[in-house]
Amino acid sequence: YPLELIRNFSIIAHIDHGKSTLADRILELTGAIKKNEENKQVLDKLQVEKERGITVKAQSASIFYHHNNKDYLLNLIDTPGHVDFSYEVSRSVAACQGVILLVDANQGVQAQTVANFYIAFTSELTIIPVLNKIDLKNAKPEEVTEEIMTIFDIDPDSILKISAKFGTGVDDLLKAIVDRIPPPTNCDRSAPFRALLYDSWYDKYKVRMLILVGVICQIFVVDGTISVGDQIQSHHTGKSYEVKNIAYLSPDERPIQKLLAGQVGILSANIRETSEALIGDTFHLKGQKIEPLPGFKEPTPMAIICLVHVVTCNNYLQVYAGIYPIESNDQLALKNAIEKLTLNDSSVKLSVESSNALGQGWRVGFLGLLHMDVFNTRLEQEHGTPVVVTTPSVSYKIIRRIVRNIPKQKSKKATVVKEEVEEFIVNNPARWPEDAANIETYEPMAKATIITPEAYVQNILPICEERRGEQVDIKDLDSKRVIMVYKFPLNEIVVDFFDELKSVSSGYATFDYEDAGYELTDLVKIGIKLNGNLVDELSFIVHRSKAQVVGRKICLKLVETLPRQLFQIAIQAVINSKVIARETIRAVKKDVLAKCYGGDVTRKMKLLQRQAEGKKRMKMIGNIEIPRNTFIEVLKK
Ligand code: GDP
Ligand code: MG
Fold first, then answer.
1. Which ligand neighbours the alpha carbon of 14 most closely?
2. Which of 127, 164, 195, 283 is in Cβ range 3.0-4.6 Å of 18 for a Cys bridge?
3. Cα(524)–Cα(544) distance, rounded to whole angstroms?
């Protein structure tokens, strides 16, 4: 495939606007997969993706397409749409020259449509605007065209209209991909080999079957050629490897001998350590001196690497939680599982942590709670390592000022006043400093965009206010919808704001946010005591104005979530050692077995078994059983 016949593109859209369905149709129309009823979201390979019907990881497929008497190679990269996964979107566009901007013809432009548009726009990619679901009775193509025109300044004549479900218009879309998107730019096949590593993962099955050792790398070849048997070297680590396999995804793996500049594909090369396959790294031939591809940064602070621009994703938009194995002897298995998943997702931050009650574990930073939830589900489903997750927290900035009187030299009485300033980040409430008088606390802020039908504005205003939101802007988007811009403290919106927004707007409002820096604020730590013992894993940070209310709420929530035990449990919320709220859970009197009439052995066995299964979902803290979802549940409304 000469460069002129290659097109690399991805599909970007708000969630549920039909990306995965469109990918299926494109694969069918070009013969990459057979047309049949079973082909539902073939690129969504992970179990969590199938169960929840959302795309979590970007997946790729190479497609062969005949047009104008020429054979084209189209490389399609499917991207996730949820706000938590925008990192994957940026990564996908790094290997692309164009995108399909898909908009549901009934729902119109939504918050993530806007966010994704800007990722593509600032990367200077060709954008093909497409209205999807025109088969729907209530599709409003004229209205949505108008919207796209005003919001994105896009020429209405360039907008295509399709039904991904029925395949209408998808042929014309394929033609537009070839006609409008340029072939890979800045590629030189006669130059020394250079490739961008833009994704990598670990194939457990293949390793077990001894087909392969180590990590699979997805690469975009920018210059030169790479063949099986070549020695490649990582620019970043300096380590070199022999290329064992090369393949393209169609979407199944098809082994090939080499890849040329402009192409994307996967390779394996006995890269064993997850830390050796860093997203954004440049591969070159062993021993050759080359310019690294632009944009590589150490994963912390995290950077999203694109060929054309660099987006730095700041740490402070992350949500942190402690992750611990349910059984302490699963420690090593969990370590391996976490390493494999993070290899694949460098937006996850990782450090070791330990807790008195839960033992040895990890502090893990995510882009949001859905991201966290999906990560934990994958740990359990794909690696068989269920976990306990502690109460999530954002990362706060603390400035500590200590004034010291230092005696002047020579003179015994005179002193100089010296101020020492120390700045640090706390993302674990257990590490909150106790010298309240000396510290200033800063919390991370988020600038949020909410798009909603006008009718729900009255419901949304109070929930924004309750979460300490500050209105920045509110204006009409079109005749029926309003766009609201708010500044929120991040910790007020990470846990369940999106759920609440959906429920007060009958599911119509959409939401996206970006970072807005740190702001000085007045925060306190609320500790939770169970029978007088501080359970630091349950403690959390709140704004002082809310301490009383939230303390009470958490106590009540614990009464609801903690199972009754054989003894009474006193729950107290404390600030320093002052009790601000308390509740009690009464003891259960009867043993579960007391319910069985003597002699019925099977019934007794069943009950015992059920009790044992229930225990697996529990964690003992002191002598109290805590269901493992308690830590997150307490923060929800
Ligand atoms: P994604 O989240 O953007 O990947 O969206 P999906 O491809 O998973 O589609 C979301 C839902 O919209 C699914 O129930 C699809 O069947 C449906 N859908 C997608 N395209 C069309 C279309 O052209 N017409 C209709 N009526 N439904 C569609
Ligand atoms: Mg999808």
1. 1
2. 164
3. 6
Please state the φ and ψ torsions of residue 304, each to the nearest 5 degrees: -105, 125
Tokens, residue 289: 């001196």
Tokens of 65: 């397409």
Residue 113 near ligand 1, beta carbon < 6 Å = no
The C-alpha atoms of residue 61 and residue 252 are separated, in whole angstroms, by 8
Other Cβ atoms less than 10 A from the Cβ of 94: the count is 24
Assess whether the C-beta atom of 134 lies below 6 angstroms from ligand 1.
no
Structure tokens at 249: 């995804």
Residues of the chain above pLDDT 70, percent? 80
Q: What does the block give as tokens for 458?
A: 């009255």
- Antiparallel, parallel or unpaired: β 194-202 and 245-249: unpaired
**Could you report how far apart the first and last alpha carbons of the chain are, in Å?**
56
With tokens 């599982």, the residue in question is 337
State the CB neighbour count (10 A cutoff) for residue 625.
16
Ligand 1 atom closest to the Cα of residue 102 is 3
pLDDT value at residue 286 = 93
Give the C-alpha separation, 386 to 381, whole Å: 8
Helical pair 457-466 and 497-504, crossing angle rounded to 10 deg: 160
Kindly calculate the radius of gyration of the chain based on its CA atoms and give it in whole angstroms. 27
Ligand 1 pocket, 135 CB below 6 A?
yes
Highest mean pLDDT among 210-224, 229-243, 323-337: 229-243
Q: Report whether 10 contacts 100 (CB < 8 A).
A: yes
Binding annotation for GTP = 13-20, 78-82, 132-135
Does position 367 have pLDDT exceeding 70, yes or no?
yes
| 224 pLDDT more than 50 | yes
In the block, which residue shows the tokens 């192409």? Answer: 263
Measured from the Cβ of residue 215, the count of other Cβ atoms closer than 10 Å reads 24
pTM above 0.80, yes or no: no
DSSP strand pairing (245-249 vs 253-256): antiparallel
pLDDT score recorded for residue 374: 82
| 414 Cα–ligand 2 center, Å | 71
Beta bridge partners of 471: 486
**304 Cα: distance to centroid of ligand 2 (angstroms):** 21
Check if the beta carbon of residue 337 is closer than 8 Å to that of residue 385: yes
Note whether 439 and 397 are within 8 A (CB). Answer: no
The closest of 497, 500, 502, 457 to 475, measured between CA atoms, is 457
The conformation of residue 187, written as its DSSP 8-state character, comes to -
Mean of pLDDT values over 361-378: 84
Task: Give SS3 for 168.
Answer: strand
Cα dihedral sign, 451-456-458-462? negative
Q: Six-digit token pair at 205? A: 């099955």
Query: What average pLDDT does the segment 99-117 reach?
Result: 88
Q: Are 222 and 194 in contact (CB under 8 A)?
A: yes
Q: Which of 10, 16, 113 to mutate to test the pocket of ligand 1 (most atoms within 8 A of CB)?
A: 16
Amino acid identity for residue 311 in this structure:
V
**Is 0.90 exceeded by the ipTM?**
yes
Instruction: Tell me: pLDDT of 559 over 70.
Output: yes
Nearest ligand 1 atom to alpha carbon 162:
23
